[in-house]
């Protein structure tokens, strides 16, 4: 029933001025327990730009991604909320929560939105909520919901590799950017559809990955540095590639494995560049790393406020 939802998500379109009507569609606090990672792609061609002409989007990205502070938060259960009063038009549940990869792409073809809910609103707009946790969808078609009604919980279903909700705003089958509904210009001084205006944050991660040495910037940018598997005797290194950090931001890099924490490193960024990377790691212990799966987390904070995080996984064999 909800398969057709993705067909609606065509190019972004301008919208005549509307009264702001959207509440945050997640039971979280921006900068504390969640953050915005990606915005609508405002470039109609193969390029990418967000509504400020910045780079916090992905090619053909048709919504706003609000990410939880951790996988543990997802497991604990965080509600996805109706952003406005409306009528539930379509739902889907039953798509597994798992990290998207080339191996699972075929399984989610046509279900990239994952477990989802679409709501129609009196102003003629629709909101679409994607990637909810399997088995959590709490509404059905025909239900009338008020702003803040729980629709389900944040998950990682469909084309997703981080716990988040993707919300799209639609008008006559076209995507509307809630941060710039009138489109056609760049900047943060535009009217928004959010009841409480949300400040733009230019800083974000591009990628993170494990390697078996401290990589070069070229190898980080090209992806050549990434390792999916290392041996027990090789160094374990986590790198983070990010952009638009500010002086005084704190980057924290940690890695955990079968025996607990493998290493942790925190760094105060004193002179950040537009795009930069940092790497930290550890040589293998004399007895070698324990075999198994390791997860790395890179986090950026600013005066105690969460700016973003990115994770990576590697297997020691």
Automatic annotation (TrEMBL):
Pfam families: Peptidase_M23 (PF01551). One of its GO terms (molecular function) is metalloendopeptidase activity. Residues 1-16 form the signal peptide. Keywords: Signal. CDD domains: M23_peptidase. The keyword Signal applies. Residues 61-178 form the M23ase beta-sheet core domain. The keyword Signal applies. This is M23ase beta-sheet core domain-containing protein.
